[in-house]
């Protein structure tokens, strides 16, 4: 999992969270797990790509979560596209072990 601090680069969001799963079922399960874990705190404003499952985008306003199948993550290279954005260290344990 990679967290990019993009707040000085775009108005889209403050952070991009980028994660990947090994197959379509894994990608959907990761998106479902995140949505479930956060449901008491907040719901996504918008969800895209869930039906196909290759790249699921969960838009929480200030945080946009991208869950890719590994092949799509490598192809689209968001870390490369947003390469000037600093990465944020996430404490081990909470959600980091799941994503």
Structure description:
The protein has helices at 24-38, 70-76, 78-81, and strands at 2-5, 15-21, 46-48, 55-59, 63-69. It has a five-stranded mixed β-sheet with strand order 1-2-5-4-3. The longest helix has 15 residues, at 24-38. The protein has one domain (2-81): Beta Polymerase, domain 2 (2-Layer Sandwich). The mean pLDDT is 92. It has three helices and five strands; from the N terminus they run E-E-H-E-E-E-H-H.
Jot down its keywords.
99 residues; alpha+beta; Beta Polymerase, domain 2; 5-stranded mixed sheet; 3 helices; 26% strand; globular
In short:
Helix content is 26%, strand content 26%. It is of the alpha+beta class. The protein has a five-stranded mixed beta sheet.
Compile the SSE list and pairings:
Blueprint: E1 2-5, E2 15-21, H1 24-38, E3 46-48, E4 55-59, E5 63-69, H2 70-76, H3 78-81
Parallel strand pairs: 2-5
Antiparallel strand pairs: 1-2, 3-4, 4-5
Task: Examine the coordinates and then state which fold CATH places here, giving the name of the CATH topology.
Answer: Beta Polymerase, domain 2
State the name of the first-level CATH class: Alpha Beta
Rg calc: 13 Å
Contiguous low-pLDDT stretches (5 residues minimum) are none
By CATH, the superfamily comes out as Beta Polymerase, domain 2
**Major sheet: size, sense and barrel closure?**
5 strands, mixed
Distance between the termini: 6 Å
Rounded mean pLDDT is: 92
Helix content: 25-40%
Beta strand %? 25-35%
SSE sequence, one letter per element: EEHEEEHH
CATH architecture type: 2-Layer Sandwich
Overall shape: it is globular
> Structural class, from secondary structure content?
alpha+beta
Helical segment count: 3
How many strands in all? 5
Strand order of the largest sheet: 1-2-5-4-3
Domain unit count: 1
């Amino acid at each position: 999992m990679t967290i990019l601090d993009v707040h000085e680069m775009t108005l889209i969001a403050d952070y991009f969270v980028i994660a990947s799963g090994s197959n379509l079922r894994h990608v959907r399960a990761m998106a479902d797990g995140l949505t479930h874990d956060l449901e008491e705190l907040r719901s996504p404003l918008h969800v895209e790509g869930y039906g196909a499952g290759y790249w699921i985008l969960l838009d929480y306003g200030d945080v946009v979560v991208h869950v890719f199948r590994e092949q799509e993550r490598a192809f689209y290279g968001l870390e490369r596209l947003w390469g000037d954005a600093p990465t944020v260290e996430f404490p081990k344990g909470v959600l980091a072990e799941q994503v």
